[in-house]
Sequence to fold (354 residues):
Amino acid sequence: MSGSTRPLYRLLLTFLLASAAVAHAQANEEPAPDFALRTMDNQNLRLSEFRGEVVMLNFWASWCGECRQSIPALTDLYAKYHRAGLVLLSINVDDDMNRATDLVRGLKMSFPVLFDNRKEVSKLYKVDAMPLTLLIDREGVVRYSHNGYRLGDEEQFLERLRTLLKE
Amino acid sequence: MSRYTMIRTIWMALVLSLAGLASAFAQDAAAPTPPASGDFKSLDSDVQTLKKEVIDLNRDLFVLEEELLFPANTQVAVFVSVDVGTYFALDTVTLKIDNKEVTNYLYTQREAEALLKGGVQRLYIGNLKAGDHELVAFFTGKGPHVRDYRRGATLTFNKGVGAKYLELKVSDKAVKEQPEFLVKEWE
Fold:
């Protein structure tokens, strides 16, 4: 292959991968499975009761470094978009609830923190890496899913979130 | 392969993948031709009819699915009701049938309020073979003086040929100022 055609092949490959990604994202748009969990404040919350709002689910654990790193960004996002209709449900999967409670207090998390100590909800959402962030639209459909966290990922959340809030 | 042929192949591949993407979005992109103003009324009634048909179809499908998944001869359904509720605020019900946990239901504030207003919730539907079975229900919540409260109720029942309906009933025992938990068989 000549040197001048190599960039064209790269372009083609990128384009094809991008089209595959779009197709994959569309295929993943499934109704969010319903669940009820207890919050740190001893309240029971059920996902289906937030139908009509844009819901962000965030699965995390206190032993996960990336999760701890993502929490300040999520706190900022929630502080800014809560009034616009964002509901953020932070689901902790720790075995020891006390560790999670300490971290929640230390990081001053202002959104509801739910405990999935039976791990039923994590199984329902097939959580295989953490943190897992999902965006659910007003119709209760999972529109965005993101595994892991790196600095700057909140820009992606923000972009998707703004689209959903406008719908 | 000459350079020209190679470039032509790439362009063809690009066009083909664009066509594929276009077909994926075709449903969204295809906007219906706007009807004339006089047609709006009939269009609206058509939409309403269609909506009604969809709702009817959904209901039929739901009934059919239940009949297939839980045939009447093996069906067992458990319902929950709350009467008065002065001495007990429901938080969770754990249901065991033949010593196997079949459901653990957490009640939100809204759900608990709906039960207090007279709502009856179908907590569980499943299949059981004919014969004797044991049902154990554990209720947790806030009891008298807002104290944590946990009580159990047990019933041994015989499952016959037809469907079996059971009700878990929470009521107040005013004399003792305590809640009462009953399991009732529907005839």
